[in-house]
Every structure is written in C-alpha cells, then in structure tokens.
Amino acid sequence: MNFLAHLMLSGDREEVIVGNYVGDFIKGKLTPERVASWSPDYLLGVRLHRFIDSYTDTHPAVRQVRQRVALTHGKVAGVAVDIFFDHFLAINFETYRQETLPNFCARMYSILEKQRPYIPLAMIPMAESMMRHNWLLGYREIAGIRRSFDGLAHRFTFMAAIRGAEQDLEQNYLYYNSLFQPFFRELEEVSQTFIQNNH
Q1: Among 1, 54, 120, 142, which one is most buried in terms of CB atoms within 10 A?
Q2: CA 20 from chain center: how many Å?
Q3: Is there a contact between 185 and 38 (Cβ–Cβ < 8 Å)?
Q4: Could you tell me the pTM of the whole model?
Q5: Which domain holds residue 92?
Q6: 78: left (phi over 0), alpha (psi -120 to 50) or beta
Q7: For the packed helices 60-73 and 77-91, what is the interaxial angle rounded to 10 degrees?
Q8: What's the rounded Cα separation, in Å, for the pair 124 and 101?
C-alpha cells in the first residue's frame, strides 16, 4: 500500500501515524536494543506498516491485479498497483471517512511536521516534496498518478518501466476498482484489530 492508505489505516494517535508513514525507510530487525529509545506508539506504527504490507502482498485480489499490471510493466507492477489503490481511496475518500480528503491531507501534513524528529533523515526530502506538492490530494486525478510515475522514473533508473502505467489503470479501471473495494474493507478491519491487540 502507498502513503494515503498507510495514513488512513493508522488510527488517531500521532506517533502511530508517523511510525506507519515512515515504515518503508526503517529496514531490518526491530531488536530491543534498536527500539529502546522509541515510544511504544511509534514502534507500533512501524510494526503496523509491516503488517499492512505483508497482508497486502499475500492477498489474492492484490496478486491478481499485480499479475495483470506485470504483463506490461514487469517488476515495478507492485509499486504501480500501490499508487492505483491510493487513487481509488482518494476518489472514494468520504465513503471511508467522515472527513473530506483536503481536510485529512492538511491534518496529516500538520502531524508529520509536528512529529518531524521521527522521520528518518533519508526520507525528509521526499516527505517535504509530498507536503509541498500535496501528493495525497493529487492521487484523485489521473494526471496526479502520471506525475507520481514520472517522478519515480526520473529519480530511480530501475523504475523506468513505470512510465505510462496510468494508461493501464484507465484501461482496466472498473476491474481493478471492483477488486480493490472489498480488499480494502478487509484491510481496514485487520489493521484495526492489529492496533487493538498490540496497544
């Protein structure tokens, strides 16, 4: 899952939110020595991020979409699908939350600014760009998805194959959305349970 999904699935506690947000930039084992100075909520957020990614990667609906996208975009299909899913969340946001997407985005950016010391240094430039250009809101539009793919291809040579993946989204829009909606409802439920059981 991509940034919007991880933020949406974090609950309301700020340090859980930022821990879930930065999860991709925290590699390796979460040993007692390593996490000794972390707050319990921040650690929970990082662990929640890993749980969400593991659940997503093994879900049959997600595998089905990734296999279809891989036919044209190869090994970067997983990244493309994560962003496709953030698009579906963005356009249907108020069916999931009693809040508008612009308000949610502003609230998340405020939390991330406040919790900036928890953001790994290597992630700071990307986080600043996300807030400055309002990526989360941009996911509502196909043009915003295209900018995300072009940006990834520009920054990372191994992501070159992701260019044009928004065309695959447009061509298979209803099919992908029909698989995404029930999957995300399941993911919401198991994520809430994970938070409750590990509080």
Answers
A1: 1
A2: 9
A3: no
A4: 0.94
A5: 3-197
A6: alpha
A7: 120
A8: 23
Residue whose token pair is 């979409």: 65
Domain count within the chain: 1
The span from the CA of 164 to the CA of 17, in Å, is 31
Mapping DSSP onto H, E and C, the string for the chain reads CCHHHHHHCCCCCHHHHHHHHCHHHCCCCCCHHHHCCCCHHHHHHHHHHHHHHHHHHCCHHHHHHHHHHHHHHHHHHHHHHHHHHHHHHHHCHHHHCCCCHHHHHHHHHHHHHHCHHHCCHHHHHHHHHHHHCCHHHHCCCHHHHHHHHHHHHHHCHHHHHHCCHHHHHHHCHHHHHHHHHHHHHHHHHHHHHHHHHCC
What the block records as the tokens of 50 is 């890993």
